[in-house]
Amino acid sequence: MYDILTGLSVVEVSSFVASPTAGLYMGQFGADVIRVDQIGGGQDFRRWPVTEANDSLGWENLNRAKRSLALDFGKPEARELLTELIRKTGQLITNLPVSGFLAHDRLAEGRPDLVTVRVMGWPDGSVALDYTANAAVGYTALTGPLEDPRPVNHVLPAWDLLTGAYAAFALLAAIRRREQTGLGGEVRLPLTDIAMGSSANLGRVAEVLYTGQDRERLGNAVFGTIGRDFVTRDGDRLMIVAINERQWQGLVKALGLAEGLAALEADLGVRFAGDDGTRFRNRAAIFALIEAEVAKYDHADLAALLDANGVVHGPYRTMVEAVNDPRLLTANPMFAPSTGNPSGFDYPAAGAFATLPGMERKPAAPAPRIGQHSEAVLADTLGLSSGEIARLIDSGIVGTI
């Protein structure tokens, strides 16, 4: 965590992944993020993975570095309190519907310069999830085994994570605009726009329009270059990628491929040096040469050889193996021991991903318990008296722990 955004307060009313990720990133850089939930927790409060006590480890980690205010959204006075809190802070992150009780126009009636960032499914307000957005833009048709034509869902909610990061960026951009012009406004971020726009930025839209057809399924091969998984003599599987000419020449030297490649070039009437496209088009024959050489080495010896020649490679691991890798976790300064978690489970937690030389990197703050900061938020942000806060709690409008 860093203190860069100290003094900035943000109200977050959200669930699942994309919207909470935006609040998480703001909190990791020092913003006071006030997450507002239904008393007892919202629809994502018990989302898997969970502990034996049914505490969500996903919720716990997406909501670090935030304060928690619990309200009964079914009570009009609770919604009025939330409206007042949003107007007081001036910044809102949410994935609630456009036309609901947190409609921007309604909120802005009492705070014209309010900035709202709203995560959506489709631009028209229709529901979409990361998995349906991914299916809609065609990436599921490109993944999976070559011999199986069925679309394959990914397990990483990539569009959720990209949307969350873009939402945090968009919020800061909108605040910057307000500083310059005095104008607030609503930023709408549909998952499908993030998915399709990101695909377009990678050239996928232009590619299909130019070729008139979709890309062929490649299995584990990397599109447009030489890269795939290979198995060593001792049975380890690793990814080897030569994404530029220097890496390609290093791979040729490391594995002694020059003679075999020369024979291929003569048979095919092509030249591989300096031509990534030609290598990719003839990847099946090249992969066969690489497979034969990789199979001669144990993984440790091959890794040393590839490293010596500047070839990018990496083993396939499980998360169980990854969490014991010093580079990834145990000696990574991004991680620090986290205690006091709502689940009661102590473990290393990720703080801010960025490394800022010269600035202190603070460990990840724990996630709140639902309603943990209700009294403090009502007192220090809304200025309510202790008597008024007690009345709200006794009437079930506000929840505490």
Feature tags:
single chain; 401 residues; alpha/beta; seven-stranded mixed beta sheet; 40% helix; elongated
Protein described:
With 401 residues, this protein is an alpha/beta fold. It has 17 helices and 12 strands. The protein has helices spanning 18-28, 57-62, 76-89, 104-108, 130-136, 158-181, 191-201, 204-211, 245-255, 258-268, 276-281, 283-294, 299-308, 319-322, 326-330, 374-380, 386-394, and strands at 9-13, 32-38, 66-71, 91-94, 115-120, 185-190, 226-231, 237-242, 312-315, 335-338, 347-350, 398-399. α6 packs across α7 (191-201). The protein is elongated, with a radius of gyration of 26 Å. It starts with 8 loop residues before the first strand and ends with a strand. The model has no long low-confidence stretch (mean pLDDT 97).
Quick gist of this model?
With 401 residues, this protein is of the alpha/beta class.
Topology overview:
Elements: E1 9-13, H1 18-28, E2 32-38, H2 57-62, E3 66-71, H3 76-89, E4 91-94, H4 104-108, E5 115-120, H5 130-136, H6 158-181, E6 185-190, H7 191-201, H8 204-211, E7 226-231, E8 237-242, H9 245-255, H10 258-268, H11 276-281, H12 283-294, H13 299-308, E9 312-315, H14 319-322, H15 326-330, E10 335-338, E11 347-350, H16 374-380, H17 386-394, E12 398-399
Parallel strand pairs: 1-2, 1-4, 2-3, 4-5, 5-6
Antiparallel strand pairs: 3-12, 7-8, 8-9, 10-11
Helix pairs in contact: 1-6, 6-7
